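Progress narrative, Year 2. Work on diguanylate cyclase from Pelomonas lactea advanced from sequence curation to structure prediction during this period.
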Amino acid sequence: MVLRWLLALLVVVTLLGLFANEHWMTRRLVLDGRGPDQRLEVVDDSGSGGASHAQLSTAPDGTHTLRCEIKPGFEWPFCDLQIESVGGDLNLTRFSSLRLWVSVAGPQKDGVPAQLRIFLRSFHPDYPGSGGGEDLKPHEVIFAPAGLAMPVELRLSQFMVSSWWAQTHPLPVPLMGPQLDRVRAISFSTGGQVLPGAHVIRLQRAELIGNWVAPETFRLGLVGLWMFSLLGYLVWESWAVRARLRRSMRRSKALEKMALRDPLTQVANREGLSRALELLTRAQGELGFPMSVVFVDADHFKRINDQHGHDVGDQVLALLAQTLRANLPRDDLVARWGGEEFVLVMPQTPAEEAVAVAERLRAVLARTPWPAGLAVTASWGVAEARDEAGLEAAMRDADQAMYRAKHAGRDRVISASA
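Result:
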């Protein structure tokens, strides 16, 4: 379910991001020659040996009109409306297109509509020449605006270095090709091979269009978002799986602990004693021997249940287990064998010492305040195992010794070796 919501959220974010990058993250730079960092220049071929003449006028609405009288007799006649960047070179790599509201008019040759040439003139200190305007690298497009819907949008990738300039300005390989990171001037010029006569270039508006974040960079960011989100989901899922596994293990351990513990007395049951003995012998090996086993059976327990009820009987068993556990060393084991019968396992303890411990515990039971004012005693049987192989026999011998104690009058300790 979480993955579905994550995928749905990523799809929505991706679609909104792509739409926003296309329509809401647009940067614009108006080219009108009137800003503090722009300057309008009118250039014609009169400075290069021609006789053409250009004149500029600007309407109240900001429309620039370049009127050009092309004179014959010069090889490459032209008139040029140029917008210079005086506040520093323009980095056009931050933009993707040039949007124009423009029209041209002039004498036509063979019915071909009048053309407009646009130059993006770049500077670099390593370009050959004296560094004047003619040494700026021109990137040009040429087209006929007549019949085109306005605005016309030209992709900056469509601008190519003028071949005539490249022939007169040989460049090293690293400087070849388009370079739009340091554009110093943008020119709107009459077309090539213009006919003599009156030509008009009318520029209503020009603006550079780009994205604050380049589409390829933005898409790469979206890919990164997808990868980061999926990676985050995998990390979260891994953590969740581990957490579930930890909870499951805790529940398993709790269930296992419950399965190995007597719920009434909170000491080990038979299975718990067997597991504890296995761990004890594995940890201590032969150092745990001699090991004594003591069977303990509450005397006249049936009479307690019959006369005082099972609730009191349960209280007696719980208190008996608690008393045994509280008065034994930590390494000694206490388990409920069944009914009113308990087993004590004492590692590194010979039978004689175990008998002494049992006598001490018997005395403790005599001083213990029991429920319902009862006086509770127990019968004790002690046996010793010399090694692991003799442990099962010691259990049987201690059980039999306990029954001998009962037949001998109860409330006593008998050793199997006696």
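The CA atoms of residues 44 and 79 lie 4 Å apart. The chain has two domains: 26-211, 261-415.
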